[in-house]
Amino acid sequence: AMSYDYDYFVIGAGSGGVRSSRIAATHGAKVAVAEDGAFGGTCVNVGCVPKKLMSYGAHYAHDFHDSAAFGWNSEAPTLSWSRFIENKNAEILRLNGIYENLLTKAGVTIIKGRARVVDGHTVSVGDKTYTAKYILIAVGGWPNVPDIPGKELAITSNEAFYLPDLPKRALIVGGGYIAVEFAGIFNGYGSKVTQLYRGELWLRGFDDDVRKHLKEEYVKQGIDVRFGTNVTSLARAAGGGITATLNDGSTMEADIVMFATGRVPKTKDLGCEEAGIKLDAEGAVVVGDDYATSLPSVYAVGDVINRLQLTPVALAEGHCLSDTLFGGKPRKTSYSDVPTAVFSNPPIGTVGL
């Protein structure tokens, strides 16, 4: 039998990669995980966790307002945005440490750097090469900005979590849950928010009554919601803001323009094509229901396979795969009736329908 450096080499320490490597290690496998960013992936760093903290924070405006009717006299509160961002960052750092500890405690070797697949049993990180019986690709996804003139002026959710100042005027482009959540967050914190979506009604795939109700609620809260509208170009405005030209020819100015117009699998420069790992038109790794890629012994889970881009789904996929490969418990992940929540205001929870 061939001898390898590791039984399992995992590329990416996000939701799917951390879970899969930890479970594999508890089954007795010799595991390494490579990560070139912060531990915990999108969810912990630029996704669910900070998004929830921002959503909770944005709700206070409403609570302060409501408290007066309940007899509380308080002066109009003022906002220290930088204090909030610093506290949020400290909490994320704490979670990064917890994730790293989970791996270390389970006996997983951590390799810091960007890994590439060389062949079915070889991975390179920088100028070092490692061999493994099995390789897992769990590199996740990345926000996609449409190719329009001035797109370098736009931000995505990645940057929205680290804005040095609260924008006075925020223009949000997109109709998925990320766009809807940030429109509510910025509005709650006091920004003047405009949300544009090219389709007729946002949150495609959700219940129609819920979609319509949320639109009415956002308009009541003072958010300028425009459907059938898109940005065709961006330019620096004279006053330092950004001028957006819309598809009807009109223009508007904002301090930030945030695109939440989909996420793409992060497979660029991963070595997939050269190694013979099949990708689809979107760049997602093509896998069977056992998470096997077209290259034997290489597997993939999470956002990079582009099935359901949700943390609990990546966790389930990574867990099932390690149980199958190393635990003697072959099992598959079920995708029916996966619950999901949208941290809009009011929030949405759905399962099944």
Show unreliable segments. Answer: none
Radius of gyration: 22 Å
| Percent helix range | 25-40%
Number of strands: 18
CA distance, first residue to last residue: 49 Å
- Strand/helix succession: EHEHHHEEEEEHEHEHEEEEEEHEHEE
Into which percentage range does the β-strand content fall?
A: 15-25%
Arithmetic mean pLDDT:
97
- Shape by Cα distribution: globular
The structural class is: alpha/beta
Largest sheet report: 7 strands, mixed
How many helices? The count is 9
Descriptive report:
With 353 residues, this protein is an alpha/beta fold. It is 32% helix and 24% strand. The chain contains nine helices and 18 strands. The protein has helices spanning 15-26, 41-46, 48-67, 81-106, 157-160, 177-189, 208-220, 272-275, 311-326, and strands spanning 6-11, 31-35, 109-112, 115-119, 122-125, 128-137, 141-143, 169-173, 192-197, 224-227, 231-236, 242-246, 251-254, 256-259, 263-265, 298-300, 340-342, 348-350. A hairpin with a 5-residue loop joins β17 and β18. The protein starts with 5 loop residues before the first strand and ends with a strand. The model has no long low-confidence stretch (mean pLDDT 97).
